[in-house]
Design a protein that fits this description.
alpha+beta; Pdz3 Domain; six-stranded antiparallel sheet
Length: 339
Amino acid sequence: MDNLSSYEHRSVLESTPSANCHSMTAFSPQALAREPHGKSLRWLVVALVILFLISGGWGAVTAFKYARASLGNWRQQLQARDASSNPLAGDLPPVKKDFYGTLAGLKIVGVTPDSPAARAGLKFGDILVAYNRRPVSNQDEISAAMDYEQEQYSRTGKPATVELTLYRDGDMALKTLRVPTGRLGIYTREWTFAYAFVDDAIMQRNDYAEAERYANQAEASGQYTADQLLHMRVFCVNNERDGEAIRQSQVDDLYQKSPTDKVTLFGNYDLLYNKRFRAAAAVFERYLKIRKVDVSTELNLAACYVELDRYDDADALLKKVLARPNGDKNAPSEYGLSV
């Protein structure tokens, strides 16, 4: 592979809260029928999400900002959550001496202002490959490593600081810096060296053939896990307006060769995050043909329809979701518990 000098070209999605965000819970199927255009549908999807967040004790403005930043991408947030939140369970990675040539890590996609990470100089695009000499390639691993060091510090007062090992600015030379023990205040996404090339080929040059070659090379190398390879395959799903036949063939292949739920999860993680709505819609539609009913996937699909100007499809899907009785596990009020 050629040296990739710049593998990141997007920023964290952000939005500004509306002055009327407190009134968004007024949406209903009847209102939808009265105003069946793109704007009302988009806000209905947002409102469904916000209803759950506010009911769980979130402030309306905070809920609005969160929903707009992550609409249709809730499973992704389980994998790319703020490192200051409660950690996911995971095994503690063993200590290593040498990280030269490391091909997997965690890409920083957000740094909380005035956090330990910000004060230490961590920035968007940095790739963390180790936390105090323990390799970290997913949220479970970094949470387990942080918890271990925090427990040691709580019991003994040591270590007061830990060492981070990282790549920066596309340079594969390892860098280290020290931060206080404890939560960093960062958002991360799983990263692999090969995925960076796949991402660049598609997002920068729209070259699907090149992206497929990189994915094939990664598989042939034997250095990537099945999940890491599946991330690449999902990202390669064609997103072009005239690519329907290719897209459906790719989705067929994914669901035939990989676990159904995992393909859909990665559709959230890799496609919605990158606003690849045609590809994401194809993945979600196929999942619902298999599973029939799943409210989180239905709301994600409705969000895709709105972005693709398929308002009638979004209207029908949302009415179907809203028609379910309270207590149904796939009713909109239970959405937050289903993901």
